[in-house]
Design a protein that fits this description.
globular; about 130 residues
Length: about 130
């Protein structure tokens, strides 16, 4: 399914995000058998959906990060989202911030705050 992620048709993107959300939300037990590196690669590919014009696609992609964090743990996904905060695109900043807050909601703020505080050692304007 990951090659389909690169398709820029809006209907394809909506359908694919819906499929990913259903898979991540409903079948947590079976996803533990999948290599975590593959799920991290999917999360990196999902970052591209933050630059899409459709708000529905952005919102679904943000929610997918919360479900992914429940499956593989928030640390790897948070590092990708924090690196995405350093990009010079405003919509990426907003979507990354919302995805971090969704992860904090799903996994608990105690898992997100240490990683954020570690990144804030060197003050940056976007983080």
């Amino acid at each position: 399914m990951t090659p389909i992620l690169r398709n820029w048709n809006n209907e394809v993107q909506k359908s694919l995000i819906n499929v990913f959300c259903k898979i991540f939300k409903d079948s947590n037990e079976e996803l533990y058998k999948i290599d975590p590196n593959e799920l991290i690669r999917i999360s990196i590919d999902l970052l591209d959906f933050f630059n899409v014009q459709s708000k529905l696609i952005k919102n679904k992609a943000i929610k997918c990060f919360g479900y992914l964090a429940l499956i593989i743990g928030p640390s790897d996904i948070l590092l990708n989202l924090i690196n995405n905060l350093k990009v010079q695109d405003r919509s990426s900043w907003i979507c990354s911030s919302l995805a971090i807050s969704i992860i904090a909601e799903k996994c608990g703020s105690f898992t997100v705050l240490p990683i954020l505080l570690n990144e804030y050692r060197i003050p940056m304007t976007h983080i």
